[in-house]
Amino acid sequence: MRILVLNWLDRENPQAGGAETHLHEIFGRLAERGHEVTLLTSGFPEAPSPVELDGMAVHRTGGRYTFGLAAPLYHRRHLAREEFDVVVEDLNKVPLFSPFWVDPPPTLL
Question: What is the DSSP string of 47-91?
Answer without folding.
Answer: --SSEEETTEEEEE-S-TTTHHHHHHHHIIIIITTS--SEEEE--
